[in-house]
Each structure stands twice: as structure tokens, then as C-alpha cells.
Design a protein that fits this description.
1 helix, mainly beta, single chain, three-stranded antiparallel β-sheet, four-stranded antiparallel β-sheet
Length: 88
């Protein structure tokens, strides 16, 4: 676990969060996945009740020699989930 402190625009303290990383490199299709299932532990970040952030990297299946990057974030902040979406 990696504890971090966050602030809005570098000025307004938002609270503390724990980043919990898992690496998955055992997929047969060559996709490497980094997953963060951390949580907020203080301040406004405590409102986050679910945090599942997955980042996947693989060779472009079109065979261009480029890298394909995909990023998915699933989060919940109760009644504030929809208004929080642009922030996250």
C-alpha cells in the first residue's frame, strides 16, 4: 500500500488516499494489467466507497507495432457519484 495526500490545484487539501497496486502479466494474449483497489482514508476522499482503477497495456492488435493503452475507472461516492464523475 502506498499512502498519498491529495490537493486540488496544489492548494486545497482534499485528504489522504491509499494506493493498492496489483500487477497481472500472466494473460496469454500479452495484455499487462495494473489495478489499483485503494481507498480514501481522510478528508473528502473518504466519500469514495468503491475504487477500481485498471490500466491495460498491450501490442496493438492491428499489428501496427504501436502500443494499445486502455484505462477504466469504476468508483462510487454514494449520492455524489454522478456529480463527482467530471472530477475523477
Amino acid at each position: 500500500e502506498h499512502p498519498v495526500e491529495l490537493s486540488a490545484l496544489g492548494l486545497l487539501p482534499m485528504g489522504k488516499q491509499v494506493i493498492r497496486l496489483q500487477m497481472s502479466t500472466e494473460r496469454r494474449d500479452g495484455v499487462r494489467i495494473v489495478r489499483d483497489t485503494g481507498r480514501g482514508v481522510s478528508g473528502a476522499l473518504e466519500a469514495v466507497t468503491l475504487w477500481d482503477h485498471r490500466m491495460a497495456v498491450s501490442a496493438d492488435p492491428a499489428g501496427t507495432g504501436k502500443t494499445l493503452y486502455r484505462d477504466q475507472l469504476v468508483f462510487r461516492t454514494g449520492a455524489l457519484t454522478l456529480p463527482s464523475w467530471p472530477v475523477f
